[in-house]
Write a structure and sequence with these properties.
The chain is of the alpha+beta class. Helix content is 28%, strand content 23%. It is globular and about 80 Å long.
Length: 833
């Protein structure tokens, strides 16, 4: 057991820190005694290309339950495989875009690895500008009929003018995610540096820095602990007495200050804006050997054997309508909960929590000598020579996306925003908020298929909040029931249309709701569905009230609306119709599963059947708008009318004409431009069974839109491309969006089709993946050689039937929950361990 600190009147220091409403807290921080190595003193007083859809049917209709055997979860990565999940560099980061991220879902930090000066920039996910606010412009509803009348009369410019003046939010821009602070270390006594290495180990979520100076090997470790809700840094050397530095803690916010509370603690307090969020952070060092002193806003450590730093941070945010929390008290409570655990126990807690998620999925796409190079050199080789010479980099990028989602989205926190969790700018691009016409949703594409279902919790909490704020927007902006959100939201859950006329896109809630339905499809969790159903119903209710007849066709259309970021103000764009149809279908299905709301389901079906259908234009393309005005080879970054192909599931090979029209539009869009637009094209091309073109988009993303630390680049850093590409790689290897025709099956149930290696590119002839998830409650392991499946294992979580397809073979499989079923490359059952 570590020793508790003993009070000392000679070293004890009392400092008053400002609390809410001018209240002062008098706090005593007592220095701990020298701790044995590994002890951390923290307490103060108190995760072969198919050329087309499968047509050949090799049916094995008998039940294969007898062929199953209990396989258990995907096995942890062996040591040799784990070593491939590394980003590493031979020099410190010169800029923020080269630093390495850590995060526990709430707290995030960027590690630069500098010598002799180190900077640790950190964030907390509720530190934003602004304060609770309803963005709906007063009187906006009074202009809705006029805008619709002008649109239906073809007076688009006039409609846009009225919209800009009277219909956008108040104010027209939302608020911004903020940086929290920085730790600055100035190390002394370091000369003749050699053998420098900086790495992020994805298998452990630890950043390490090592180097030598004058025969001494120095080591740093940094991780963000979810169980202990803190960031930990450890500094050590292989010889005693060689750790010496001065530590400062500061913030870019003008209204902030730092004080030392004794020789071991720095305390930062501040406020973002007048009447805005307050914040506090504590940095506490625990030393073995040497001396520790403090002066003003800095701590000096001299000649220590090792040092461990604990960083905690909090804001006054309680929820989007209440910012009266006490951040100082939260910091103290966090330290109190950490208690007197030693460093090894803290690390063990962190690893158990993190690896439970990350090690669920393994991916091997092959390896070349380029995998031995530092990550920035590998990326430079991709820029000149392409990705085919380094297949392991694609696997690393896939796992990096899983790592980033674990690090930026954990239950109880905020969802991953435009920059995930990491931001150093007071005025970040697009306010680093949640853009709902693609970016926020893309962040969560890998959550289910890449076996990180728990990471969706913050997104669902955001949706719950938007039911409240979006309910106000529905009433005040449209005179409708239910809830609505447009193409952006922020910490204050803004739901009104922002920025400009392209903000008048009322189907953000429909897209967010699709993630609720997808979660049910993957997990079969009826308790979750019961929680989600009221949200789905209210989202549907808004469109029941909002849709109006198109005077030309009598179809029910959204008016006004916008096809995301392209064209002009319009009504009934294709993406809207697809999203609303999917929303209503899922609401009707959920009502049936839960045996509720039969009358509403019938009403909803009647409205759904009056939506405009997907239309094929004069060139044979899927139309983006009601009118056939698409321009051939328009390579716009957005792929909005292809939503029903991916991430939706309404466009499938079952409708050959529509499937071909969608593929033509996808061809017109060409290669990506922004990082996320490359990323969206990866799963879209996978859905049309073209693995080589999907791979081309992945190659372009890594060649043109990836920073040295593998962050995605939109123009500036934007994390959605990381997540979209991870989902896209999974989609190339496994698809489950289709269901088999009822035939002799119960027409009330759906049998999932598991399509194995549906879009395998020629660049990955040999490989293996374990732990991917499929709709219907399945986990899938695959091995392939020379472009063809050699082995598949299907684990059934729920006992549902499925149809398994690969390479022209097909098998119908009845399963039992908890059992696993193994097949060879021809989908013949095998029963080997």
């Amino acid at each position: 057991m570590p020793r508790k600190p003993q009070a000392s009147s000679q070293t004890e220091r009392s400092i008053a820190f400002p609390g809410p409403k001018g209240k002062d807290y008098s706090n005593k921080f007592e220095p701990p005694p020298p701790a044995p190595l590994g002890v951390l003193s923290l307490v103060t007083q108190t995760r072969r290309n198919n050329t087309g859809p499968v047509n050949t049917r090799f049916l094995l209709c008998a039940s294969l339950t007898a062929a199953g055997f209990l396989m258990g979860p995907a096995s942890p990565l062996p040591a040799a495989a784990a070593s491939t999940n590394l980003l590493w560099y031979a020099q410190p980061a010169k800029s923020w875009n080269e630093a390495l991220p850590i995060g526990n879902g709430r707290l995030g930090a960027m590690i630069f690895g500098g010598v002799p000066e180190e900077r640790i920039q950190f964030n907390e996910d509720t530190l934003w500008t602004g304060q609770p606010h309803d963005y709906v412009r007063a009187g906006a509803r009074d202009h809705l009929a006029e805008i619709r009348q002008l649109l239906f009369a073809g007076k688009i410019k006039e409609a846009e003018g009225v919209t800009r003046t009277n219909f956008l939010s108040d104010p027209v821009r939302q608020k911004a995610y903020q940086p929290f602070g920085d730790l600055h270390f100035n190390f002394t006594g370091l000369t003749n540096l050699t053998d420098y290495r900086r790495e992020l180990d994805l298998d452990s979520a630890i950043v390490r820095v090592t180097y030598q100076s004058e025969g001494v090997t120095y080591r740093r470790e940094a991780f963000a602990s979810r169980p202990d809700d803190a960031i930990f840094l450890r500094f050590s050397a292989d010889q005693p007495g060689h750790i010496s530095f001065t530590l400062k803690l500061d913030s870019p916010h003008k209204d902030s200050e730092t004080k030392a509370a004794g020789p071991y603690v720095l305390f930062l307090t501040g406020q973002v804006q007048t009447n805005g969020l307050r914040f506090a952070s504590l940095a506490r060092v625990a030393v073995t050997g040497g001396q520790t002193t403090s002066q003003d806003n800095r701590i000096t450590v001299s000649n220590a054997d090792s040092v461990t730093l604990c960083l905690v941070a909090a804001t006054s945010f309680k929820n989007f309508q209440d910012i009266t929390a006490d951040p100082y008290w939260q910091c103290r409570q966090t330290l109190r909960k950490i208690g007197w655990q030693n460093f090894d126990d803290l690390l063990t807690n962190h690893l158990a929590d993190y690896r439970d998620l990350f090690q669920r999925v393994q991916l091997d796409l092959g390896r070349t000598d380029r995998a031995d190079l530092p990550t920035d050199e590998r990326l430079a080789r991709v820029e000149t020579d392409g990705l085919p010479g380094d297949p392991a980099l694609a696997a690393l990028y896939f796992q990096y996306g899983r790592y980033l989602l674990i690090a930026s989205s954990r239950p109880g926190g905020q969802p991953a925003n435009l920059q995930g969790l990491w931001n150093q700018e007071l005025n970040p691009p697009w306010e680093s908020k949640w853009t709902l016409n693609i970016n926020c949703e893309m962040n969560y594409w890998p959550a289910e298929v890449a076996n990180l279902s728990e990471c969706t919790g913050p997104l669902f909490d955001l949706i719950d909040d938007l039911v409240i704020s979006g309910g106000r927007a529905a009433r005040e902006q449209y005179g409708a029931g239910g809830w609505v959100v447009h193409h952006n939201t922020d910490l204050w859950r803004g739901a009104a249309p922002i920025n400009n006329i392209d903000g008048v896109w009322p189907t953000g809630g429909a897209w967010l709701s699709y993630h609720l339905w997808e979660h049910y499809l993957f997990t079969g969790d009826k308790e979750f569905l019961a929680r989600a159903y009221p949200v789905l119903k209210l989202a549907s209710q808004f469109f029941v009230d909002y849709l109006v007849p198109d005077p030309k066709t009598n179809w029910l259309v959204t008016a006004p609306s916008f096809s995301p970021e392209q064209g002009e103000l319009c009504y009934g764009p294709t993406m809207d119709n697809q999203l609303i149809r999917a929303l209503m279908n899922s609401t009707i299905a959920a009502a049936g599963i839960l045996s509720t709301d039969k009358t509403f389901a019938v009403e909803l079906a009647a409205v759904r059947d009056k939506l405009p259908p997907n239309q094929i234009g004069k060139y044979g393309q899927l139309q983006e708008w009601l009118d056939d005005v698409d321009k051939p080879n328009n390579n716009h970054r957005h792929l909005s009318p292809l939503w029903a192909l991916y991430p939706g599931a309404d466009i499938t090979p079952a409708d050959t004409n529509l499937f071909a029209a969608a593929r033509l539009l996808l061809q017109w869009r060409g290669d990506g431009s922004t990082g996320w637009s490359y990323a969206w094209r990866v799963p879209l091309w996978a859905r049309v069974y073209d693995g080589d073109f999907a791979y081309r988009q992945l190659n372009g993303l890594l060649q043109k839109r990836t920073l040295p630390n593998l962050f995605d680049l939109c123009g500036p850093f934007q994390i959605d491309g990381n997540f979209g590409a991870t989902a896209g790689i999974a989609e190339m290897l496994l698809q489950s969006q289709q269901t088999a025709p009822p035939r002799n099956r119960d027409p009330r149930s759906q049998t999932r089709i598991l399509d194995l290696l549906p879009a395998l590119p020629r660049a990955w002839p040999n490989g293996a993946v374990a732990g991917l998830c499929a709709r219907g409650g399945f986990e899938v392991d695959l091995t392939w050689k020379d472009g063809a499946l050699t082995r598949a294992v299907i684990r059934s979580k729920l006992g549902n039937p499925c149809v398994v397809r690969s390479g022209g073979h097909e098998v119908e499989l009845k399963t039992a929950a908890g059992e696993a079923y193994a097949f060879d490359g021809r989908l013949q059952p095998v029963n080997d361990p």
